[in-house]
Amino acid sequence: MQLFYSSGSPYARAVRVALRETGLLARVAERETTLRDPGAVVLPHSPVGRVPTLVLADGTVLTETALILPYLDTLGGAYPLLPPATLSRCGQVLGLLEGMAVWNRELRRPEHERSPGVIALETTRVNRVADTLEAQGWTAPARPDAADILLGCALGYAERRHRAWPWRQGHPALARVFDTLAERPSFRDTLPPLSGI
Ligand SMILES: N[C@@H](CCC(=O)N[C@@H](CS)C(=O)NCC(=O)O)C(=O)O
């Protein structure tokens, strides 16, 4: 199997962390691709052109993190990533991550093209979800499930790629979980580069 990724993508990072945690990385070749580029090496495999993209041995192409993570659970890794109890938390974290991605996209536009309304909406959404996760009393797990992995990657994105959001303020429990997850070899091995935003 081949996994197309970009080093800055929190979605692709979640799949890369999951492969490392479950011991499935040995069965997957990771291939870095450019994005939003007609020459991107992922494009001959997927017209969507986004990461993560997983190409199976029979040529089947999977996109979308929320589809790839459950597929990994069919491969007999070290432990299940997505037991039913994780689904609700996964949805919340994916909502937070998507909010940050939309907010970040606005910030990458020239200032006169940005939508203050979109930025305000997504800032509110992201804080609302983080406050809810904080109140749930999240703790660092011995074996991270898909929700833990997505949370670590979402907060890692806030930490290094979307620093416009001071996410640690008011979220000490999330900060403790993040700092613990960040020490794991799977997270250290997939650290995204710092961005200017
Ligand atoms: N809903 C997708 C989102 C993936 C996504 O947005 N990936 C970004 C990188 S973070 C991407 O590939 N962007 C390139 C593009 O939009 O063309 C998922 O969950 O996998």
TrEMBL record:
Q: Which residues cross the membrane?
A: none
Q: Which PROSITE patterns match?
A: GST_NTER
Q: Which InterPro entries match?
A: Glutathione-S-Trfase_C_sf, Glutathione_S-Trfase_N, Thioredoxin-like_sf
Q: Which residues form the GST N-terminal domain?
A: 1-80
SUPFAM superfamilies to which the protein is assigned, alphabetical: GST C-terminal domain-like, Thioredoxin-like
Per the database entry, which stretches of residues form a coiled coil?
Answer: none
The protein's matches in Pfam families, at most eight in alphabetical order, are given as: GST_C_2 (PF13410), GST_N_2 (PF13409)
Q: What is this protein called?
A: Glutathione S-transferase family protein
User: What organism is this sequence from?
Assistant: Paeniroseomonas aquatica
